[in-house]
Amino acid sequence: MVQLKRSFRSYMNIRLEKVARTAKEAADKVYRREFGLDIQHLRILTIVVETPGQPVNWVVQESNLDRTLVSRLITNLAKRGLIERILSKEDARQFLLQATPAGDKLAEQADIIGDTMNEDMLKVLTEQELQILDRCLAKLAEWKPRVEHLDENARPDD
Q1: pTM as predicted
Q2: For residue 155, is it within any domain?
Q3: 74: containing domain
Q4: Which stretch of DSSP H or E encloses residue 70?
């Protein structure tokens, strides 16, 4: 195992968060300028475009965002005429989401910009590094924390 200097900056979650924050801030700037929407709005819109007819709960889970935030984003997107809520035929208590033609068009334009930004970020890696990173991220995405099995020596003294 790679030994890193003992510092909060050495924790993998901190390092991944820093990369994600840098990418998000750059994307937010571009998306706000081009579309008047931030990356979170576009994440929800893209999910709805790619998987129309899903309930709000599904979109919340897929987006990895807070339920209250997703509800607010959906309301904003609906007010802008980019998505619409449709009452479920199977469950009248549930709304299903679908993009409007304007939402489809905006998502398509945002995807072009997103692809360009993604390519820009990844061009610092070689093809081999990119393949390794992809495999590593796939493994980490499947990881389930097992904190209940901490060794007694790893616990702080009282």
Answers
A1: 0.81
A2: no
A3: 9-141
A4: helix 67-79
Lowest mean pLDDT among 46-50, 115-119, 121-125, 148-152: 148-152
Across residues 98-119, what is the average pLDDT? 97
For residues 54-65, average pLDDT: 95
Rounded to whole angstroms, the Cα distance separating 116 from 20 reads: 16
Domain annotation covers residue 46: yes
The answer to whether 123 touches 133, Cβ cutoff 8 Å, is no
CATH number of the domain within which 132 lies: 1.10.10.10
Domain count, the chain: 1
To the nearest 5 percent, what fractions of the chain are helix, strand and coil? 65, 10, 25
64 within a domain of the structure (yes/no): yes
The sheet with strand 83-87 has its strands ordered as 54-55, 95-99, 83-87
Residue 2 inside a domain? The answer is: no
- CA distances (Å), origin 72, targets 66, 131, 146, 154: 10, 37, 34, 41
Virtual torsion, Cα 139, 44, 107, 130, nearest 10 deg: -10
**Sign of the CA dihedral running 123, 128, 132, 138:** positive
